[in-house]
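_Backbone structure tokens_
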Amino acid sequence: MSKSKPVAKSNSVTEILLAYLWGLLPLIGLIYFIPQYLSIVLPLGLLFFSSSRYFQKRIDGYTGDCLGAVEQLSEIVCILGFLVLANIFI
């Protein structure tokens, strides 16, 4: 009875790799100038895999709310990581 239609579609490997490239491009540029920021990638990877596993286990997939929550958590991880690195390496 829902009037909404699904918006998810299967993406090709090329589309996924391009999305990752565009998403990581700012971080790659930052790492080029300040290599210590590479250490922020590990917590982001852990957040990605742990949240993916959690959502798959609990709700058998993900929703827009899940994506929003992971985005907000990623932003917090980045900001806290940058603050920690700034205090250590200044």
Observations:
- Residues 35-89 form one domain.
- Residues 51 and 69 are 10 Å apart (CA to CA).
- The two ends are 59 Å apart (CA to CA).
